[in-house]
Design a protein that fits this description.
The protein starts with a helix and ends with a strand. By secondary structure, it is mainly beta. The longest helix has 14 residues. The protein has nine helices and 27 strands. It has a domain of 92 residues.
Length: 553
């Protein structure tokens, strides 16, 4: 009888397996981080996000078995995720609500909501949602004593599903409209590079749009994906390999997981230098250089005592796709040499430990370039990034209260390159954290859940930066290695000193409160206080309040 039950469980999971990814902003990732910290789950790799629905479901199954030792808030949070991932867990749609189905309940119920969903065993299923949000931003400039406000409205839809139990698809498209101060609206990082918003003419500049999509195949130990959606690579509050500030990237990726081994390969398309030229017959045209990003990493997840990774990144530009970098297993530094040293390669090592229940710490060393014969000198070409941090659960078994700390040291000229299009940017925006080279940063974060539907957070960032000396037009007079867009030039000194240059300090304090009174209806209140000093003179002192209401049905 026991064997029959196990067989039914296996077949159920096979028949109703969902193929797809869960976006990086989903609260389930914070929950899984806490579950790993307090030793409820193991073998969870937070270095690379997003995860697939199958991966997340597997973790939820482990947590469900250990529910008895969870706190009351964690247990109720788990119930919410069981509601949302019900179909993935058991094949049931009892906790789902469809607007177009014959359902006697209202849209203000506590079920997971969809416009429409359909499932036909393992052959085909699809889930369709409307997504919308309204945002109100208000800012006060304490230097000029001026106020500004703006309102943003976004609406659109998304569809996801599975075909033949191995193929997953996803597409999302939204349009938006803004009223009020345009500079304040650009505080939202996704609007800084949005073409329709920033480059539009006349009234069209009020509008913005965004889209993401992917097609993927997932098997027992390997998965493939081609798409365009958000990726995070790196530990901690600020991701050093890839964070959320850059424009969306089109890419293809392969991931392999078996036992303690994991391997990821990614090849993506970026935007290089942009020039606007005049064509007599066609008028003004944008010309953007071709540019590509390549990443691979081997992970060894031995146990909670030692998770280790080694990886490489490559930036190359001004030519078509290079087949050398389509090989997932090639050592890219040597391939770069074979390609006549035209590209920007970086090597990194990362480590994480969670031996003590409730405590995790990590470290990463990134080597942008190095000459071992000149180690210990001030030679500009020895470019290192050091990233270290820790997370601690103050009350592992009772209250979800997490304290985190991160320290970043980015040496002069890190991320930059002598060939401009090979710098570590897309549309001149850094791929990693928004911290320039020749900087150090201290980040503190507190996350607290007083209620399973309430999330509170406080983040403090302090950054010290040695900026380049420039003239009134922005031309670099003295290069201290403090600008990601300006690599070392022949006229620059071969010696650099960390944090030498025009001293800049930034204090950034963020308070966030999120409340989900009804499933899929979310209220967010965020306050940012920013203060920037340059050579002991305050050049920015501003507070911004952001109120967001989002709906998903």
């Amino acid at each position: 009888m026991r064997k029959v039950i196990i067989l039914i469980f296996i077949l159920t999971n096979f028949i109703y397996s969902q193929i797809g990814y869960v976006n990086i902003e989903h609260p389930v990732y914070s929950f899984l981080d806490r579950m790993q910290l307090i030793h409820i789950i193991d073998n969870y790799n937070s270095f690379e996000l997003p995860k697939t629905r199958k991966e997340i479901t597997d973790y939820l199954k482990i947590i469900i078995k250990k529910r008895a030792i969870l706190s009351s808030v964690d247990s109720k949070t788990l119930d919410d995720f069981i509601t949302e991932f019900n179909f993935d867990l058991s094949g049931s749609v009892n906790s789902y609500y469809s607007l177009f189905a014959h359902d006697t309940t209202t849209i203000f119920n506590q079920k997971e909501k969809f416009l429409y969903f359909y499932s036909d065993s393992s052959t085909f299923n699809t889930f369709i949602n409307f997504v919308g949000s309204g945002e109100a931003l208000y800012s006060r400039d304490k230097l000029t004593n001026e106020n500004a406000s703006t309102t943003l409205f976004t609406f659109g839809g998304e569809i996801r599903g599975t075909i033949q139990n191995h193929i997953g698809y996803f597409a999302r498209a939204t349009n938006g409209l803004h009223f009020g101060d345009k500079d304040l609206a650009a505080f939202k990082s996704n609007l800084k590079y949005n073409y329709k918003y920033s480059e539009g003419n006349h009234d069209s500049s009020q509008y913005f749009d965004e889209t993401s999509a992917y097609l993927m195949a997932e098997y027992e130990h390997v998965k493939f994906k081609i798409g365009n959606d958000r990726i995070n690579i790196g530990y901690g509050i600020a991701k050093t390999i890839m964070d959320n500030y850059m424009p969306p990237m089109d890419y293809l990726t392969m991931q392999f997981n078996y036992s303690v081994f994991s391997y990821t390969f990614l090849h993506g398309k970026l935007f290089g230098t942009k020039n606007v030229v005049f064509n007599p017959s066609k008028g003004w045209q944008s010309v953007i250089a071709d540019k590509y990003f390549v990443y691979h990493r081997l992970g060894l997840n031995f146990s909670k005592h030692c998770r280790f990774g080694i990886g490489e990144t490559i930036i190359y530009a001004n030519r078509n796709i290079d087949f050398s970098y389509l090989n997932p297993f090639l050592f890219y530094k040597s391939a770069e040499h074979a390609n006549q040293d035209r590209d920007n390669s970086m090597l990194f090592f990362d480590f994480q430990n969670n031996s003590v229940k409730g405590l995790s710490f990590y470290a990463m060393l990134l080597i942008d370039d190095v000459d071992f014969s000149k180690l210990g000198t001030n030679w500009y070409g020895n470019k290192f990034l050091f990233d270290a941090g820790a997370s601690y659960e103050l009350f592992p078994s009772s209250i979800p209260l997490t304290v985190a700390f991160q320290y970043l040291r980015i040496n002069p000229y890190v991320y930059s390159h002598r060939i401009n299009n090979n710098n570590y940017t897309s549309l001149n925006i850094g791929l990693g954290s928004n911290i320039e080279p020749n900087s150090e940063s201290f980040l503190f974060n507190i996350k607290y859940k007083p209620h399973y539907r309430v999330r509170l957070g406080i983040t403090y960032r302090y950054k010290k930066h040695g900026a380049n000396k420039t003239d009134a037009n922005g031309n670099v007079l003295v290069n201290y290695g403090g600008d990601i867009l300006v690599g070392h030039r022949e006229i620059d000194s071969d010696e650099v000193i960390f944090l030498n240059g025009i001293e800049e300090t930034i204090n950034h304090f963020t308070v966030t409160a999120e409340y989900e009174p009804i499933k899929n209806y979310l209220l967010i209140l965020q306050t940012d206080i920013l203060k920037t000093n340059k050579e002991n003179l305050t050049i920015l002192n501003k507070s911004i309040i952001n109120l967001i209401f989002s709906i998903r049905i």
